[in-house]
Amino acid sequence: MIIKASRQTPGVQWLLASTIHSQILAYSLLIQNPELRFVDKVLNGMWQTSGGWGRIDRDDAVESMLKYADAGLGTFDMADHYGPAEDLYGIFINRVRRERPPELLENIRGLTKWVPPPVKMTSKFVRDSIDVSRKRMDVASLDMLQFHWWDYSNSGYLDALKHLTDLKEEGKIKTVALTNFDTERLQIILENEIPVVSNQVQHSIVDMRPQQKMAELCQLMGVKLITYGTVMGGLLSEKFLDTNLNIPFAGPPLNTPSLQKYKRMVDAWGGWSLFQVLLQTLNKVASKHGVSIPTVAVRYILDQQAVAGSMIGVRLGLAEHVNDTNAVFSLVLDEEDVNSIQEVTKKGKDLLRIIGDCGDEYRRA
C-alpha cells in the first residue's frame, strides 16, 4: 500500500495509513523490556533541524511531521541542543491532539536527549533540566530521555542517571536510556542497577563497531541499540553511486554536516573506491528487491544483533522519504544478499581499532 500526498482530509489520510501502521507496530520492539515496546523500528531523526541543512520553516516542518505521523511513522527523535526540535514537537503534538483521531495520538512518541556539561549532578539541576524539555515538548512525561556524558573521568554520570531514575519513578520520564556510551561504561551503569533500556549509537554497514563489543553485552543484559548514521547522511544512496569525489566538483556536493561527518568515516574505513564497490553491491540487492539503496542499508542494520530501531534523518519541510521508509518493513534480505554485502565490508578497515568503541569519536582529544 503506497501513501501518496492528496487533498483528502487528515482523518481519511490516517485511515489510509492504518494498514501500514499496523505493519509497523508488528515490527515494533518486541523485546524483553516492555518499556521499549512502543517505539517504532524506524525513527524520524531531527538532528537536521539544528542548522546546516537549509532553513527550516516552522509551519512547513510541523506539516511534514504530521505527514510522517499520518503515514504511520510516529516516533520522533530529538535533543535539547537540536535547535528548535523540541519546540517543533510541542507544536506538532498539540496539532495531533486537536486535529487527529485519539488512536493516532496513542502511537506518537517523542524521544529526546539530554547533553549536560560535566558539572555536579544535583537532583535540582537534573530536575530543572528535564523540566525544560517537558515544557518545550508540551508533555507531562517524556516518552524517553536519552542521556549523554562527555567526560568519563568524571563519574557524575552515575549521579545523573540515578536522579533521572527518580524522575522516572515520579512519572516525569517514561523510559531512561543512553546515547553514545561505550561498552565499559554501559556495564558499570548496569552494575549500579540503573535500569537503562537502550543505547543510541552510530551504526551502519560501514560502521559495524557496535556488533564487535556492545551488542554482546546488550544481548546478555536485555538492553537494546537504537542506531543513527545508518544511511550515513545520504551517502548510502543512489545519489552517490558511480561518483568520484576525489576529483574536485566531479560529484554531488558534501553540503551538510552529516555528509561531511560520514565522508570522514568512509575515509577511515577504506576510501571512496571501496565505498563505490559497496554502493554497486547494494544497488544490485536493491534492484533485485525493487527498493532503494537506503532501504537495503536500514534493513541490514535492523537485522543485526540487539538492534531495536534505526534512525532516518528527516529534513522537515525540505525533503521526504515516507515511501522508502515504509518499504523497510516488507524487505527481507536473503543469504545471498547478506553474503554479497559482507564480501565487500570485510575488505574495509577495523573502525573499532582505528576510532575506538561506540561514542569514542566524540571523546578523542
TrEMBL record:
Name of a matching Pfam family: Aldo_ket_red
Domain NADP-dependent oxidoreductase: 42-344
Source organism, top-level taxon: Eukaryota
Entry-linked InterPro entries: NAD(P)_OxRdtase_dom_sf, NADP_OxRdtase_dom
Keyword terms, alphabetized: Cell projection, Cilium, Flagellum
Keyword RNA-binding: no
Protein name, per record: Flagellar radial spoke protein 5
Species name: Heracleum sosnowskyi
